[in-house]
Amino acid sequence: MHSNYPKFFTNVYDLTSTFVLILGSVIEVQMIIAFINTILMVIGLSFLKVPSILVMALLIFILGLIPIAGVLLSLIPLSVISFAALGWTGMIEVWILVAVIHLFESYFLHPRLMATRTELPIFLTFATIIVMEHLLGAWGLIIGVPIVAFILNLLGVQEASISKHSLEESTR
């Protein structure tokens, strides 16, 4: 079938495919961050001698895919298990471990990986994460960087090399 508006639909296709590919790359980065977070937590929990580390690792990874809320949700079972096994001091040590790893993730790992993947400057990525989280909440952490990368691509300020490279691979 042919459309009466082929140029319009070609532009819509190009724009949506660019946004979807940028969003996909950001989701991929979130999975990498969750994986690194899980590895660091498992190392820390093993030093603290918290039991059921494999179950905790699975829980931390799955909940790590949810920005901000995942940390808070994983803190509940971590607190219960560490309190039952290690007492108050063990639970507080686990809280400190979670806080340190979360700060590392939020202020270093997340902006750096997002900037590398989207080829945006680290400062712009960091500012985008802060502003979009303030405006859109947890969703801003997920879709904030793709929106800014998409708008910059649309305005011609920054070429979305991710989308062009991925689009070339998908059409082969």
Overview of the molecule:
The chain is an all-alpha fold. Helices cover 87% and strands 0% of the residues. The chain is built from 6 helices and no strands. The protein has helices at residues 6-48, 53-64, 69-118, 122-136, 138-155, 161-171. α1 packs across α5, α1 packs across α6 and α4 crosses α5. The longest helix is centred in the middle third of the chain and has 50 residues, at 69-118. It is elongated, with a radius of gyration of 20 Å. The mean pLDDT is 82.
Query: Hey, roughly how much beta strand do the residues contain?
Result: under 5%
How would you classify the quaternary structure? single chain
Q: What ranges have pLDDT less than 50 throughout 5 or more consecutive residues?
A: none
Helix content: over 70%
The tally of helices reads 6
> What's the main sheet like?
none
Distance N to C terminus: 24 Å
Helix-strand sequence = HHHHHH
Helix- and strand-based class? mainly alpha
- pLDDT averaged residue by residue: 82
Q: Which keywords apply here?
A:
about 170 residues, mainly alpha
Topology of helices and strands:
Elements: H1 6-48, H2 53-64, H3 69-118, H4 122-136, H5 138-155, H6 161-171
Short description:
The chain has helices at residues 6-48, 53-64, 69-118, 122-136, 138-155, 161-171. The chain has 172 residues and is mostly helical.
